[in-house]
Amino acid sequence: MTTSRKQLHLAAHFPGVNNTTVWQDPRSQSQIDFSSFVHLARTAERGLFDFFFLAEGLRLREHKGRIHDLDVVGRPESLTVLNALAAVTERLGLAATVNATFNEPYELARRLATLDHLSDGRAAWNVVTSSDAFTGENFRRGGYLDHADRYTRAAEFVATARELWDSWSEDGTPRPFAHSGQHFDIRGEFTVPRSPQGHPVVIQAGDSPAGRDFAASAADVIFTRHGTLEAGRAFYADVKGRLAAHGRTHDSLKIMPGVTFVLGDTAAEAQEKAHHIRRQQVSPQNALLTAEQIWGVDLSHLDPDGPLPGFDPEPDPKLTQGRTRLGDPQEIADRWRALSEAKGLSLRETVIEATGRQSFIGTPETVAAEMDAFVTQDAADGFILVPHLTPGGLDDFVDRVVPLLQERGAFRTEYEGGTLRSHLGLPRPVARPVWKG
């Protein structure tokens, strides 16, 4: 499809061990069985999505010394799953979240290049970092990395991986490599020939100034979250504005927020469904657990339908292990109290409203129009959809919203190329000369 109109990109996030997923819904199925991954991936490919996106978890999260409920059935390794999905999909990009703190460049570059070969050029790597000593206990160097060093290691990790991918020439000739830096000092010969994309697509998730700089310097896609058009436009302008300093063009980085959606035949029906979903996502128990992360103490004696705690937070970093901190506890508690008092909300109702992530709620026509507006007004280049059901949560969107986006001329009607880079409109990197020994 040839058009000067700005096109919208779409990706699908597998709804696994996160608090967006509604597990008590009778339509929910396994987050481990291969059939669940196949269903969502094939639905995304039927909808002509750019890629399928898997999260990662290197340790089962804990709360008050017990495994978190959402982790009790386990967390499979993402690249293994995607290698299997490469055999049952044809065009869909396959994106794995892999930690740059607890892996090594040679091994990971090899695994990603292998996926790129097996999938005929559809591999992507979502680069994440960690300075979490709790997670690090699963590894030989647990807890060794200072928080301030996580992005410096990640940047060097990505640069080293690119050197490895470039160590085979375009004509299929292996060349020795060598890298000596702050975090890695390696040399030798890479075992995997140059893959169809040259480099797998690099995705980065982060919103801090360091994360934005890292994305502007090294990523092809940035996975972020911004709930309003204004916030999205500010983030978009900021990150795109950083590209020139790294010698990059405006279109060399795609900004794709993670979003949720709720569809209804009418606006009122969609809002009613959204309210029901939020109450399923934040059960009475879940509301108390969320509040405990803020207040830092056991709150099981409180009534979730009663008021918020009347005392100030007492932060305890060991209460919840392996989960991202929500922010400054006192600031959050003050904000929640103001919200609760202004609207007369209970503890559970406050958590529901304060932590809501539902992004697009309405009829298919409304959702298609709002998504198109985000893209045409430069608040995003597209979206990574996070359904609330596993594995059928994407079905309605593909059946009801995608055709409307196509009618608007905002989304492709067929895949024009076979690689993920072609879907995203990104060039294939040319192999650069590397050190020769």
Automatic annotation (TrEMBL):
Pfam family, one: Bac_luciferase
EC identifiers of the protein: 1.14.-.-
UniProt-listed SUPFAM superfamilies: Bacterial luciferase-like
Top-tier EC class: oxidoreductase
Keywords linked to the UniProt accession: Flavoprotein, FMN, Monooxygenase, Oxidoreductase
Keyword check for Oxidoreductase: yes
Signal sequence, renumbered to the chain: none
Sequence ranges assigned to domain Luciferase-like in this UniProt record: 26-375
Region (Disordered): 306-325
Coiled coil: none
UniProt GO MF annotations: monooxygenase activity
Family (UniProt): Belongs to the NtaA/SnaA/DszA monooxygenase family.
The protein, known as: NtaA/DmoA family FMN-dependent monooxygenase
Species assigned in the record: Streptomyces ochraceiscleroticus
